[in-house]
Every structure is written in structure tokens, then in C-alpha cells.
Amino acid sequence: MRIPIILFLAMLLASCQSDSGPAAGGPNTLVVATAANVQFAMADMEKAFEARTDFEIDAVVSSTGKLTAQIRQGAPYDLLIAANRKYPESLIASGDARGPVQTYALGSLVLWTTRDLPVGLGMSLLDELGPGDKIAVANPENAPYGTESIRALRARGQFDRLQSQLIYGESIAQTNQYIVSGAAAVGFTAKSVVLSPNVEGNGQWITVPENLYEPIKQGVVATNYGMENHPEAVQAFLEFLFSAEGQTIFRDYGYTVPIGD
């Protein structure tokens, strides 16, 4: 059942405030560093996984870049479910995670607005905005979806003209706050967000053509901490992630699966 948009905004605020990270999980609890675009799919994943095993999941939601930095600083995260493959691979290179990185899904970009805008124009909608209308984008320094949003704007030759209208969220979650609150007229977000039961039917969205940005291959990797402290639980969760049930959950949220590495 769809929840009121104001409650959804409260959920986004809570998710952004949780990224300082919890204490280490108990013997049967996995602490999973989760990219913000995956947070709604992860909620379903948690329920299904916990119903079928003796393990519990504690998800920490933030941008992939911030989560990666926290792992390097010793945060007790067992796995990183990232928004790309670059960050998990960098953890292997730095000796903080154990490979291989596995691609669990391919993400998609959308433009989302809660205003009455002519979405039938597609990406040309951005050309109809006034100079005071803001466009929300995840910070490309921390969030892979932000990187690809900027790439899409450049591919259409819109970046230079619209650059002054961009407002950056530290993750997709904060970017969604800007869109939902009306601080931005429109914004780039993940398709998984607008297909969430919490959001579906709120506002309007259009799919960003895939030829405008690089494929968003999203990777998962087990950290050294996870393999040293909860190896059985880590393995069980990875198996579930790639099971038919786990992949169906991702598909329901607009991800493409399965996808080769």
C-alpha cells in the first residue's frame, strides 16, 4: 500500500542519518553497507532472507563512496552492496575486501518530478525549465548514479547551460529529498526508487535513454571483516542474493538481471 509522500520523505531523512554506521553485528547478524538506490529492494531482501535462514540483516544506507571510505577506516561492515563495480574493486585492491566482485544487477536512471511538468517531452523537459528551477543530482564524487546523470547531460549537450541549476545530494536518498520536498523541480534518480511501493504513483517520471550513459553495473563484495567474523552468514546471503528469489526482487524494482560481469 502506498504511503503518504510526507512519510516517505521522513523515511529518506532517516536513511541519510543512519550512514554513520552501527556497531558490529552479533554472531547471527550481518551488517550490510547498502548503496542508497538499493535501500527499498534491500528491505524486501531482508525480510525474505531472514524468513529462510537463522541470520539477520542490519542495512546501513549511504552513497557508495562514503560507505567505501568507512570500510577503509575500519567500519564493521560484512558486505558492500554498491552502485557500481569500481568501489568494490578498489576495496580488493586496498586489501579491505576479498574478491571476486560479483555484478548482482544493472541499474537504470530516471528523471522524476512531483510537479506538473510536461514529461512527455522526455529529456527535452529540462529545456523547458525556468532559470530558477533546480535539478537534483547525486554527488558524482560519491554516487555512481550522479556520475552517470552528469554523463547523460553532457551527452545531450545540456550540461553547460544547466550547470548553475544543479543541486547535489550526497546520495540518491538525499537527491530524492530535494525532489519530494519541491526544492528541485526535477531530479535524476534510480528507477528502483520510483518503482518502490512507497513512491509508485507519486509524481511523474521518465526513463533516461540508456545510450546517454554508461551501463550501471552494480557489484557486491565481502569485506575482510565479514569473511573473518561471519563467513557462513556472508556466504548464505550472497547465495540468496543471486538465487531466483533474490533476483526476482531486484527485477521487481526495475533492475536488469541477470547480468554478466
Number of domains: 2
Range of helix content: 25-40%
Spatial arrangement of strands, main beta sheet: 2-1-3-10-4
Name the shape in a single word.
elongated
CATH domain class of the largest domain: Alpha Beta
Low-confidence stretches: 13-18
Quote the distance from N terminus to C terminus. Answer: 35 Å
Name the average pLDDT. Answer: 91
Name the CATH superfamily classification of the largest domain. Periplasmic binding protein-like II
Quote the beta fraction.
Answer: 15-25%
| Structural class estimated from helices and strands | alpha/beta
The gyration radius over C-alpha positions equals: 18 Å
Query: Could you spell the SSE succession in H and E letters?
Result: HEHEHEHEEEHHEHEHEEHHH
Strand runs, count? 10
Tell me what the CATH architecture of the largest domain is: 3-Layer(aba) Sandwich
Which fold name corresponds to the CATH topology of the largest domain? D-Maltodextrin-Binding Protein, domain 2
What does the largest sheet look like?
5 strands, mixed
**Number of helical segments with 4 or more residues:** 11
Question: Keyphrases for this structure?
Answer:
single chain; 261 residues; alpha/beta; D-Maltodextrin-Binding Protein, domain 2; 2 domains; 5-stranded mixed β-sheet; 11 helices; 38% helix; elongated
